[in-house]
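REVIEWER CHECKLIST
Item 1: Sequence provided? yes
Item 2: Single chain? yes
Item 3: Sequence as submitted:
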Amino acid sequence: MMLSKPLVMAIPQQDPISEIQFCAWVAQAEPGDRLEYHRGFLAIDICKAVTTLEPNARKELELLAERARWCEAVRLVHLVQQRVGPNQFSYIAIARAKTQSNSKAVAQLSELAA
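Item 4: Structure as written out by the authors:
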C-alpha cells in the first residue's frame, strides 16, 4: 500500500487552540495533514466536576471537542489518540479529502473561521 504522506506524529501545540483555529485548519488542510488539537485526558478535562481547567478554558475545550466530532461525522477528518504517558493522550485530527458530499461543511467552517 502506498501512502501519500509519511506516518509522523502531529506537531504538539504549545498553546491550546480554539474552536475557530480548528475550523480554519480543517478548511485549509490537505489530506493527510495532522493537527494535535488537545493534549491531556479529554473526558476529564471537559467534565465540570473533575477538571482542573478554568471555567472559560473548559468551555472552549468542550466547544473544540464538539467541533472535532462534528468534523469527523461529516467526513472532513479522522480523529485518533496516542498515549503519551499515564492519563495523558495526544488528540489528533487527520485531514481527509474534501469531496462534493462535504463541500457545504467546508464552506460552513470557512465562514466560522473568517
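Item 5: Key structural point noted by reviewer: DSSP finds four helices and three strands in the chain.
Item 6: Recommendation: ____
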